[in-house]
Structures are given as C-alpha cells and as structure tokens.
C-alpha cells in the first residue's frame, strides 16, 4: 500500500504530558533548576543545545536504571493511541522527533507502533550517567531535516506532511510541513504556527486533517 501522508511530532508535552528531562532532574534532586532551564528553552529564550548540555550535566551520577523509574511516571496525552491507529489505517507513517532521550522515547514508540524515532542519547559508564550526551544533538534543524528525510523516503511532498509540537525548537518543522500545528504550545509557537490545538487531546489532529 502506498503511503498517503506523514505525521512527525514532538514527544515531551505533546505525545506525553510530561517533560522527560524534568522527571530525571527531580530524581537527581535538581528538579526546579532543570525545569527552569527547560521552560526558558521552550519559550525560545535559550539556545536549545546549550540548555540541553546544562541540564544533562546536572544528571551526572544517576544510575542507568533511572530510566525504568521515569517511564512509570510518563503518561500519553489523551488520544495518542487513537491518533496513531487512525493514521496508520489511513496509510500514514508516524515519526517522533525529540530533544529527550532514546532510553525512554524508544519504549513509548514501541508501545504505539511508531514508524520513525529520532532522539538524543545519554552517555553511561559503569552503570551511571556521566552528565554528557552521545553523538549529535537533536536540534530544531534536526527536527526539520527528519521531516524532510522521512517524507522523501516515502515519496511524499511536504504538502502531504503534518508536524506538531509545543516548543520553540519545533517551529522550523511546523513551518515546513504542509500542516503545522502548535499543540498546547508556548506563545512564540502559537504566534507562528498555521494551526493550533489548545486542548490536550491528540485526536484533534484528525479534525484538522478532515477539514482540509
């Protein structure tokens, strides 16, 4: 069956209700400090790459088993399963792009049957987090590039894509997609996104698609 479309979405505060790195920060006893950096980065006040490095450094020393604990505190946003199932039934592919971490995002993606995943990966040595990130950082440019790459792999034009997120680092992909959606988003994102969803229900994406 030919692919009819592609949805690419952010994870933290979009696919799930929480910010994964903030949950890790709470476990490390630096929750308030991490959450403050996250909020400023999502509003576009801080460079995302630098903000990520600062927050990850605060996690140094946490045991790698912490990911299992944090997963228990992550909750899918209402409508997540229905959205993915419906889009798959319509012939869509679904991808996740996250400034969060593969260590938790992969599990979320597996549960939903997600087709593509791009996230950051934390360095672990001797069973503990080193406070560093491995490999390339997922930036706003990375998110946009993933949208373009995955569309191309499926023979789709950008007009046949949907992108959705809540933070400033989601804006380039939101503005590149055929349908760009600010989901319960920060003010800067609402101002610049073509579409808005302001209730925490992911099935509202289907209403936007059906109105087209």
UniProtKB/TrEMBL annotation:
GO BP annotations of the record are: L-serine biosynthetic process
Pathway assignment reads: Amino-acid biosynthesis; L-serine biosynthesis; L-serine from 3-phospho-D-glycerate: step 3/3
Enzyme superclass (EC): hydrolase
Q: Name one Pfam family in it.
A: HAD
Q: Which reaction does it catalyse?
A: O-phospho-L-serine + H2O = L-serine + phosphate; O-phospho-D-serine + H2O = D-serine + phosphate
- The UniProt entry annotates the active site at 10, 12
> From what superkingdom does this record's organism come?
Bacteria
The Swiss-Prot or TrEMBL record describes its family as follows: Belongs to the HAD-like hydrolase superfamily. SerB family.
The protein depicted here goes by the name phosphoserine phosphatase
Question: By which gene is this protein encoded?
Answer: serB
């Amino acid at each position: 069956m030919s692919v009819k479309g592609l949805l690419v979405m952010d994870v933290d505060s979009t696919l799930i209700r929480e910010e994964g790195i903030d949950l890790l920060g709470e476990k490390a006893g630096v929750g308030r400090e991490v959450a403050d950096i996250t909020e400023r980065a999502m509003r576009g006040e801080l460079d995302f790459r630098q903000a990520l490095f600062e927050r990850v450094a605060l996690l140094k020393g946490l045991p790698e088993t912490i990911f299992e604990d944090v997963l228990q505190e992550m909750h899918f946003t209402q409508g997540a399963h229905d959205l993915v199932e419906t889009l798959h039934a319509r012939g869509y592919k679904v991808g996740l792009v996250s400034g969060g971490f593969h260590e938790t995002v992969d599990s979320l993606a597996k549960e939903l049957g997600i087709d593509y995943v791009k996230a950051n990966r934390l360095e672990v040595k001797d069973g503990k987090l080193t406070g560093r990130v491995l490999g390339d950082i997922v930036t706003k440019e990375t998110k946009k590039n993933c949208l373009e790459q995955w569309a191309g792999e499926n023979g789709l034009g950008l007009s046949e894509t949907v992108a959705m997120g809540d933070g400033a680092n989601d804006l380039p992909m939101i503005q590149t997609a055929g349908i760009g959606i600010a989901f319960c988003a920060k003010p800067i994102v609402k101002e610049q996104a073509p579409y808005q969803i302001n209730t925490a229900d992911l099935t509202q994406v289907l209403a936007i698609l059906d109105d087209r």
